[in-house]
Amino acid sequence: MARPPLPIGTPGTIQVVQDGAGAWVARCRFRDHDGVTRRLRKHGPSKTGARNALHDLIRERQRGSSTGSRELTPASRFSDAANLFLAKIERKREDSTHALYVFHLDSTILPALGALRLRECSVARIDAFLEALEPRYAANTRRKLRSIVSGVLQVAVLHEALASNPVRELERIEQPKGQRKAKPRGLTPEERRALLLWLDSSSDDVAVLRKQQLARSADLPDLVRFFLGTGLRIGEALATRRLDVNLDGVSVEGADGSLRVPVVTMAGNVTWVKGKGLVRHDGKTEAALRVIPLPQFAVDMLRRRLDEPGDDDWPIFPAAGRDGRVTYRWPANVRRTLRSVRQDVGLDWMTPHTWRRTYATILDDEVTLTDRMKADLMGHAHFLKDAYVSRGELHTGAAVVLHTALMGSSNSGAAD
Known about the structure:
By secondary structure, this protein is an alpha+beta fold. The protein has 3 domains: about 50 residues, no CATH class; about 90 residues, Tyrosine recombinase, N-terminal domain (DNA polymerase, domain 1), CATH 1.10.150.130; about 200 residues, hpI Integrase, Chain A (Orthogonal Bundle). The chain contains 15 helices and 10 strands. Strands 1-2-3 form a 3-stranded antiparallel sheet, with helices on one face. A hairpin with a 5-residue loop joins strand 2 and strand 3. The longest helix has 20 residues. The protein starts with 14 loop residues before the first strand and ends with a helix.
């Protein structure tokens, strides 16, 4: 019976003997990455020295061969695969995605898995790692961490250092039993009116007046109107330039003939990247790049801002850089200002994303718009009702609809 071949990238039994001159020789068979089994040998001043020299040669062959190489082998560490994974992300994805993956790898994943050999990354070990995260992280964060681990191990699969990706064998990450998923919450009509009234007014209370002046100095009245009128994410709103706004409008054919609709083009995003600071880049996906029609209140606000002097490539909501030049406003600064004033408005739970949810809720209530239209306006591949649409409002119109439907049919039956 023929001897079974060695697995690719692995040595056979190592033998160490003395030659006729008294020198030590270590030798073995080794199956290279091209499938050819070759005999390796190394000399040394002692038995241990010869063996160590042969081990060094084997490691070198495992990293690559003369006919082409694989950078990873089963003996490579998880951290080695993570470096190759990050290099791929840096080439193919935006800086913000790369920075997020670096953060999660450095802070959570590599301290737990980085020293493991790839052949040691079993289903049980990866599952135990993810299970240990449950007390520390929400389900969504754990799904992100699982996705990164899967991406790293998929690189190992592509390098043939693993036969399959162990993450694919794991169960889905579910919300812990007894925990309810937080419902998306937008602003009700009453809350919207109260917020805009507070931002536009001047209180007799000195402490409240200071907060209102702080909000106005940070452009919050205009920013809130821009968010509510466009549904943009905070990075998208702050990346909007003067040249992205077309108040003359695009021509649209309607039932009453041609009309012009003012629009804003979402053509970028600003985000903080470690080592680079605030960076503006294109949207992450094709769906993120979109043209949004503007309601009249947003048109009035933007027209006033565009009447002020400025270059076309300036942001609509500019900030002054350290050198005095106009630059993009930091999302963190907008969030910080909002946190300092929202309690005075009676909306201490509100974030900039609340305004995006409010926009989505208003769209969802409009029956003339299809889900496809709503997804296009939101910059999604699909309209994510469960994640964005606020629920629990009192829809008084439902009583009128039910009365008309039920009492109308009853009256009809009585007349017959």
